[in-house]
């Protein structure tokens, strides 16, 4: 924990203040091999069109579910287990716990999001459809050539716009309003995992 404190204390401070971090791979404990494994899985994951979110917000994207939290926690594919093991093995687990000051972590949902020209994600809160979605881990596998920006509206009324690149990881608090603007050119691919920071048993 002392090593984590010295290496990641600035990131923990920024996350506590802003609720969002955009990190390069070398700013996290994730290895290039684990990232490549996630990328390979994403290329083989079937997707389906989603136009309405869990709370009725409009979207336009392709989604491949690997683990779901509705109507109950269920891992849907063996590759979902592989990704869950990557995210929750040490030192990744300790990293997420340190950044969020949490003692407990549970992955609620894992999915691949694919957006092509015209694709977007409407404004929503992650914890609106499931109050146990405290943290989103967004691993960027391919950035759009134009568009596909992550827009985060913080509690102070500020609007922050990000265009994460391939291999970058975004950590976002579940109580932040956010959206993804329409992709204009290219394809945007992300692997998203929603984490609970408190124990749930149902």
UniProtKB/TrEMBL annotation:
Cofactors required: L-ascorbate
UniProt keyword list: Dioxygenase, Iron, Metal-binding, Oxidoreductase, Vitamin C
Domain Fe2OG dioxygenase per the UniProt entry, residue ranges: 103-197
Any GO MF annotation of the entry: oxidoreductase activity, acting on paired donors, with incorporation or reduction of molecular oxygen
UniProt xrefs under SMART domains: P4Hc
The protein's name in its UniProt record: 2OG-Fe(II) oxygenase superfamily protein
Organism: Moorena producens 3L
């Amino acid at each position: 924990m002392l090593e984590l404190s010295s290496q990641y204390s600035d990131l923990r401070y920024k996350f506590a203040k802003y609720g969002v971090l955009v990190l390069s791979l070398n700013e996290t404990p994730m290895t290039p091999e684990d990232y490549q494994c996630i990328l390979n899985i994403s290329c083989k994951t079937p997707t389906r069109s989603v136009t309405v979110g869990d709370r009725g917000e409009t979207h336009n994207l392709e989604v491949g579910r690997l683990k779901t939290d509705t109507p109950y926690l269920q891992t849907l594919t063996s590759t979902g287990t592989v990704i869950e093991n990557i995210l929750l093995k040490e030192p990744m687990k300790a990293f997420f716990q340190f950044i969020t000051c949490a003692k407990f972590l549970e992955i609620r949902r894992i999915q691949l999001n694919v957006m092509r020209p015209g694709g977007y994600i409407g404004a929503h809160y992650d914890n609106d459809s499931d109050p146990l979605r405290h943290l989103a881990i967004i691993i960027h596998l391919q950035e759009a050539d134009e568009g596909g920006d992550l827009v985060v509206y913080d509690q102070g009324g500020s609007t922050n716009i990000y265009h994460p690149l391939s291999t970058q990881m975004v950590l976002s608090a579940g109580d932040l309003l956010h959206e993804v603007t329409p992709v204009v050119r290219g394809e945007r691919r992300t692997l998203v995992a929603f984490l609970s920071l408190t124990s749930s048993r149902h």
